Amino acid sequence: MSTSLLHHSLLSRYLFVPFCLRLMASSSPAISSKVEDTADGNAAALASCIFCKIAASGGEKTNTNILYQDNDVVAFPDIKPAAKHHTLVISKQHVLNAKVLTSEHKALVQKMVDTGKKLMQEQGIELDDVRYGFHWPPFYSIGHLHLHVIAPVSEMSFLSKIIFKPNTWWFVTPDYVLSRL
Ligand SMILES: [Zn+2]
Ligand SMILES: [Zn+2]
Asked: Residue ranges for motif Histidine triad motif (predicted)?
């Protein structure tokens, strides 16, 4: 089997069901799988966006344990952790994904990373054993910008290491995202 075929079969088997899809399944109404390729998405997507709901209600309406929030970002645990510590840092504003970001979002991305680092540090985690990254379109299920912060990397399963493998065509590092802005 060629490498590209292998990648394709891995993708079709696993990557269309990433962990955050479970979050989508547990929320209602279901998020449309249709996504608009604009930074702000559209009104309909926003109204049904689970991450917007979490951000707007401070986690109350969604029973989410908010770890940190300010005017720009909100952080909470991933509903299906890939390791002992698995935090999502989302933009408070509805931004579709990392690919639609522009130079205006540079400070936001940096803040998302800094927030993730700070939260890990507060839990006494070695920062060199933390994985950071964004899904890269079209491989994501929640159409709202979110940074995955996962530690310890050494405890991640084989499958999780594939799903959250840095700088593949489905998952990219903050440095890569920043380099495009
Ligand atoms: Zn995700
Ligand atoms: Zn949203």
From this structure: 144-148
Which candidate in 86, 105, 146, 148 is catalytic?
Answer: 146
Pairing of strands 146-151, 85-91: antiparallel
CA of 160 to the centre of ligand 2 (A): 24
The reply to whether omega before 152 is within 30° of 0 (cis) is: yes
Could you read off the pLDDT of 110-137 as tens digits, one per residue? Answer: 999 999 999 999 999 999 999 999 999 9
What's the CA gap between 155 and 170, in Å, rounded?
Answer: 21
Q: Counting Cβ atoms within 10 Å, is residue 1 exposed (0-12), middle (13-18) or buried (19+)? A: exposed
Q: Can you read off the two tokens belonging to residue 166?
A: 């840095």
CATH classification (class only), 39-179: alpha beta
Q: How far is the CA of 87 from the centre of ligand 2 (A)?
A: 17
Phi, psi of 34 (to 5 degrees): -75, 135
Closest-CA residue to 137 (of 163, 98, 106, 95):
98
Domain boundaries, the chain: 39-179
Residues 6+ positions from 33 with CB-CB distance below 8 Å: none
